């Protein structure tokens, strides 16, 4: 299969073909999603909650995400792999941001990086793009600034749409090839999508965006905690795995496993 490149994102917007993305943190899911034709895989700092057992994404480090990104990038044949720059790895300025982005490209084999923030991150985006590294921007609700935003709150509501549009313009002008819109009203996301030449990728941004992205563990029903309302569950892996574990435990107890078939 032909690899997805940034031009695929641009062409998809032009041709009205929806872009799909899922998070992935390991080679097993990366291979499955790649073969299913998912366009891009985000090695999100949501690995903090989903893999590393943290309460939020804030403690996640570049050193933690590099091996996960390498696993995903090494497993795909077609999908575009985006490494997520964690909190504390780019806010200090363009030099720090470029340093981090280069680590994702060089040590992990990512095809692009993602970082949070609109106007506040435009200098970082410009520097990274200037070095030949594609950047996926991320505006609206930005989990790394949960405390600054005052909680898990929908962005771009009412007057907030002005800031959302300003952020969208800023990341496009800085050279981002796509922008994630997280937890914004569908109408605000529609306005951003119409305003921009680059594709918008919705995570809880409604149906008018150029693409959709979900955290795979939420989408596949592996997450057992609370999941956001915008997620639609396409499988119930927690139940499947839980049932398998119970059945196997009972089989071991009863002697039904292993049989001759499973023995040497
Ligand atoms: O880390 C992540 O999974 C993300 C997406 C939800 C946008 O940043
Ligand atoms: Na993230």
UniProtKB/TrEMBL annotation:
Domain of life: Bacteria
Residues that span the membrane, as ranges: none
Residues binding 3-methyl-2-oxobutanoate: 45-46, 84, 114
Protein keywords: Cytoplasm, Magnesium, Metal-binding, Pantothenate biosynthesis, Transferase
Pathway(s) where this gene product acts: Cofactor biosynthesis; (R)-pantothenate biosynthesis; (R)-pantoate from 3-methyl-2-oxobutanoate: step 1/2
Catalysis: reaction(s): (6R)-5,10-methylene-5,6,7,8-tetrahydrofolate + 3-methyl-2-oxobutanoate + H2O = 2-dehydropantoate + (6S)-5,6,7,8-tetrahydrofolate
Entry's cofactor comment: Binds 1 Mg(2+) ion per subunit.
Positions that bind Mg(2+): 45, 84, 116
Main location: cytoplasm
EC code(s) of this entry: 2.1.2.11
Active site: 182 (proton acceptor)
Subcellular location(s) per record: Cytoplasm
Cofactor names: Mg(2+)
Role of this protein: Catalyzes the reversible reaction in which hydroxymethyl group from 5,10-methylenetetrahydrofolate is transferred onto alpha-ketoisovalerate to form ketopantoate.
Subunit structure: Homodecamer; pentamer of dimers.
Entry similarity comment: Belongs to the PanB family.
Protein name (database record): 3-methyl-2-oxobutanoate hydroxymethyltransferase
Native source species: Agromyces tropicus
Full-length numbering of the shown residues: 56 to 319 of 319
């Amino acid at each position: 299969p032909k690899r997805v490149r940034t031009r695929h994102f641009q062409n998809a917007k032009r041709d009205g073909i929806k872009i799909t993305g899922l998070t992935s943190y390991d080679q097993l899911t990366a291979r499955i999603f790649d073969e299913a034709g998912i366009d891009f895989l985000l090695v999100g700092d949501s690995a903090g909650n989903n893999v590393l057992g943290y309460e939020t994404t804030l403690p996640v480090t570049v050193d933690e995400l590099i091996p996960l990104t390498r696993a995903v990038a090494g497993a795909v044949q077609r999908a575009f792999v985006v490494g997520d720059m964690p909190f504390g790895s780019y806010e200090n300025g363009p030099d720090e941001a470029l340093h981090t982005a280069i680590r994702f490209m060089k040590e992990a084999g990512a095809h692009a990086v993602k970082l949070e923030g609109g106007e506040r991150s435009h200098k970082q985006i410009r520097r990274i793009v200037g070095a030949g590294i594609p950047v996926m921007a991320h505006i609206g609700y930005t989990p790394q600034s949960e405390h600054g935003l005052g909680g898990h709150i929908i962005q771009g509501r009412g007057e907030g749409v002005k800031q959302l549009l300003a952020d969208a313009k800023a990341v496009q002008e800085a050279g981002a090839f796509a922008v994630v819109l997280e937890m914004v009203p569908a109408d605000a996301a529609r306005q951003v999508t119409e305003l921009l030449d680059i594709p918008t990728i919705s995570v809880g941004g409604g149906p008018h965006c150029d693409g959709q992205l979900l955290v795979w563990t939420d989408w596949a029903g592996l997450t057992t905690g609370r999941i956001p309302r915008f997620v639609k569950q396409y499988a119930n892996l927690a139940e499947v795995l839980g049932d398998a574990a119970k059945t196997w435990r009972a089989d071991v107890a009863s002697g039904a496993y292993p049989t001759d078939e499973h023995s040497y």
